[in-house]
Amino acid sequence: MIEQKDLNWGQGSAVPQRKEVPTPHQQPQAQPQVIPKRVPLSGLERVLITTIAAVCGFFMITLVSTQVGLTTTQRQYQNLTTTINNKKSQNNDLQQEIGELTSSQRLNEFAKAHGLTLIEGNIRNIGK
């Protein structure tokens, strides 16, 4: 379709004529970009990369191993602490039972039950 601004109505012609629109100059095509090629690694670089990777791997394995050992040791410590606390509780219970069994009141009751008499002069109190 012809647009109004492109028509030239002047100049006395009956048929509209097109204006020539100047075409922009085409720029010369740019040279294709050069893609840099990868430079191969030298032998020293390969050795360094391999050594660093091996050292990092060694440290990772050592760290995990140490963490597992530490966790195991902590669990053993907790078990030992629990066992010690249980034994202390049992010892306290037994000490209390010993105190009850060796009380003078209990000994007097046992003596009366078996027909024994108590002579106060024969009793000695020994402290630890």
UniProtKB/TrEMBL annotation:
<feature type="compositionally biased region" description="Low complexity">
    <location>
        <begin position="23"/>
        <end position="33"/>
    </location>
</feature>
<feature type="region of interest" description="Disordered">
    <location>
        <begin position="1"/>
        <end position="33"/>
    </location>
</feature>
<protein>
    <recommendedName>
        <fullName>Cell division protein FtsL</fullName>
    </recommendedName>
</protein>
<keyword id="KW-0472">Membrane</keyword>
<dbReference type="Pfam" id="PF04977">
    <property type="entry name" value="DivIC"/>
</dbReference>
<keyword id="KW-1133">Transmembrane helix</keyword>
<comment type="similarity">
    <text>Belongs to the FtsL family.</text>
</comment>
<dbReference type="InterPro" id="IPR007060">
    <property type="entry name" value="FtsL/DivIC"/>
</dbReference>
<dbReference type="InterPro" id="IPR011922">
    <property type="entry name" value="Cell_div_FtsL"/>
</dbReference>
<keyword id="KW-0131">Cell cycle</keyword>
<feature type="transmembrane region" description="Helical">
    <location>
        <begin position="47"/>
        <end position="70"/>
    </location>
</feature>
<comment type="function">
    <text>Essential cell division protein.</text>
</comment>
<keyword id="KW-0175">Coiled coil</keyword>
<keyword id="KW-0132">Cell division</keyword>
<keyword id="KW-0812">Transmembrane</keyword>
<keyword id="KW-1003">Cell membrane</keyword>
<dbReference type="GO" id="GO:0051301">
    <property type="term" value="P:cell division"/>
</dbReference>
<feature type="coiled-coil region">
    <location>
        <begin position="77"/>
        <end position="104"/>
    </location>
</feature>
